[in-house]
Amino acid sequence: MKKIFFCIFLSYSIFSENLNEALDLIKSENYGEAKQVLEKIIEKEKDFVYAYTNLGFVYYKLGEYDKSIEAYKKSYELNPSFESKHGLAWSYLEKLDFENAKKFSLEALEIYPGNYLANLAFIEANYRSKNYKDALTGFKNMEKFYGKNEVLSYKIAVCEKELGNEEKSNQVIEEIYNSEPKDKEIRYLLGLSPKVPSYKLNLDYGNFSFQKSDIIGSGFRKGAGFEIELNDSFKFSGNFHQSKSDNKTNQNGIENYFLNEYNLLQYSLYNFNPSLISNYYGLIGNRYNLYNIVKEKDFQINYFDLKTDFKFAFNQKLKLQYFSANGNNEFLKNANAFKLSYEYGLVYKFGIGLSSIYNPNHSGGQLDINFYFPFLKYFYSFSNISFQSLQKKETEYLLISALPVTTVKYNYKFNYQSTYFVQEIGFNSSYFYSGLGIKVGEALTPIVGDSWIYTPFRIQNGAYIFIGKNLFENLSMKLEYSKDSWIDSLDKKVYSDFTKFQLQMRF
């Protein structure tokens, strides 16, 4: 958010040529090489004040604040200049040593009373130490003296909010939002893209495995997505994923066939007469059913969603989303859902969503309520609770006669209610993010999260962890792992492991 520019020094000593090389590297933001050049200068000239001052700046930019303080102190001892005092103020500020930050910023202001950054360092010390009353006064005085800018305005908004002046805070934030803020970190804190229009492409690949399941064992999921943000008010996105799972009945088909619930019922009726048992299993129709099970293809699910986000006010957003899942067996055909949600807030967010769900085997609705709030400097909490009310369709076979085997199929429905809760704690900055979460409860439909990998199963408790890094300005990656428990179609407890890698590119 803050952009700190330090004065660059010229030297007429015998080392000026090497110093100028270091200054050129600093101008091109090549701080690693600049550090090496400056350290070599100091090895030969222990009292070269300009080398220490610029080395302090380089250490500061590299985040090595202890070394930055050490270099600036040496410069201060050799020549207590504005630059050395100013550098010490900001370096101590990053170390959260607010007293020294104030001390050296005041010393710098004695030399140049009107310097913007020296004034900002003093007020930032109050702001970061949560002395919001004095910080607010300071930021407002700076605004009067230097004029408005989005950095000062945002700090004023935060101070007003922390002091309980919610209405004033929202007024300032709305002004920033409507002014089309340019500062990347300000846009990031307001939940905006670094620039608009923007276009994103997402690619992901994951492996998963199930334990204690007679139906599927392991598989993979791959997908791609896009996002188009034409302005700060409208965004459109879509995702497509395909999951494939091993069909273990290829290996254990006979065992699964003979021991399924329906055939066990038949066995209980035939077990008094071995010839009847052989007649039953010798029927052409039953042999054909067994053949189909053994030869059944691996399970496959194609899943996609489309979503639009519309901001109709600076702190309010509407989202409309459509989900569809389709697979290659009777349990996975034509699952659809529509979701309409509303979100309020910029820094602290509240959301509510209502979904309509349809599947040949169940239909109903889902209500989602979520809260997002940041704490400390880069940390946040996200909570979501989902309530489902569904009508499930079940099929039951009733034996009418033994020879020939005659059954009647009954379809009946029953109501299903469930609650599903997700709690996530994360770290989020413009360079690096991570988080971990837990999932508690039970849910049936594939719209509670993107770790859903098999539609017929009912997801239960679970946990996940992820880590992401912005590799370059327009490229980031994310690695996620989740472990969940499920109830499968035979009411058996199943556990899954899911590892996913995602790559995101911005254009």
Shape: elongated
Helix/strand order, N-terminal first: HHHHHHHHHHHEEEHHHHEEEEEEEEEEE
Oligomer: single chain
Q: How confident overall, as mean pLDDT? A: 81
What does the radius of gyration come to?
Answer: 32 Å
Which strand order do you get reading across the main beta sheet?
Answer: 1-2-3-4-5-6-7-8-9-10-11-12-13-14
Strand tally is 14
* Class inferred from helices and paired strands: alpha+beta
What is CATH's topology name of one domain?
Porin
Helix content: 25-40%
Text of the CATH class of one domain: Mainly Beta
Strand content: 35-45%
The tally of helices reads 15
Q: Please, could you describe this protein's structure?
A:
This protein is α+β, with helices and mostly antiparallel strands and about 500 residues long. Among the domains are: about 1-130, Tetratricopeptide repeat domain (Serine Threonine Protein Phosphatase 5, Tetratricopeptide repeat, Alpha Horseshoe), CATH 1.25.40.10; about 200-245 and about 300-430 and about 445-455 and about 470-485 and about 495-505, Porin (Beta Barrel). Helices cover about 35% and strands about 40% of the residues. It contains 15 helices and 14 strands. Strands 1-2-3-4-5-6-7-8-9-10-11-12-13-14 form a 14-stranded antiparallel beta barrel. The longest helix is centred in the N-terminal third of the chain and has 15 residues, at about 130-145.
In short:
Helix content is 36%, strand content 40%.
List keywords for this structure.
36% helix; Porin; Serine Threonine Protein Phosphatase 5, Tetratricopeptide repeat; 507 residues; alpha+beta; 14-stranded antiparallel barrel; disordered N terminus; 40% strand
